[in-house]
TrEMBL record:
Taxonomic source organism: Glycomyces algeriensis
Coiled-coil segments: none
Name of the protein in its database record: Glyoxalase
Annotated VOC domain residues: 10-136
InterPro entries, sorted: Glyas_Bleomycin-R_OHBP_Dase (IPR029068), Glyas_Fos-R_dOase_dom (IPR004360), VOC_core (IPR037523)
Length: 155
């Protein structure tokens, strides 16, 4: 019998794991906004809620569960918010951002063209997680990026 791989082929090396209050609703939100595919879902220990779920967003994965204080698994609200945010490249940032707001997200920064060549915006989902969404719209050489960053810093 062969030894299993320490990093399974079907899992990326780094995977964010989100804890929320209302994981089933969050899964539907991520499906609507990002077109996420659900790889699997397990009920919580008591047979209710979401004990573990895996979502595919493009070639990436996000794991999530309901909040379980007895396991030190807390949603951002427990801490007054989260210091961590997630960044997702999408095909159409304007459409994804609009879908997020329509599905109940809070706008943190409107979608705008950035000096480094992305068109980006930021929202907070209804469970307190911050998402930066971007579409790359321009390849910018390092020298030009520095010039644009300096110009932006000067107003």
């Amino acid at each position: 019998m062969s030894k299993p791989k320490p990093i399974p082929d079907e899992y990326p090396r780094v995977t964010p794991y989100l804890h929320v209050q209302g994981a089933a609703e969050a899964i539907e939100f991520y499906k609507t906004v990002f077109g996420a595919g659900e790889r699997g879902r397990m009920a919580g220990r008591d047979g209710t809620g979401v004990g573990h779920a895996e979502l595919e967003i493009g070639d990436s994965m996000v794991m999530l569960s309901d909040e379980y204080p007895e396991m030190d698994a807390y949603a951002p609200g427990h801490f007054g918010g989260s210091p961590v945010s997630l960044h997702v490249y999408v095909e159409d940032v304007d459409a994804v951002y609009a879908a997020a707001l329509a599905a109940g997200a809070k706008s943190l920064s409107e979608v705008t063209d950035q000096f480094y060549g992305d068109r980006s915006g930021t929202f907070e989902d209804p469970w307190g997680h911050k998402w930066h969404v971007s579409s790359h719209v321009e390849d910018v050489m390092p020298e030009e990026m520095e010039r644009r960053a300096a110009a932006q810093a000067q107003g």
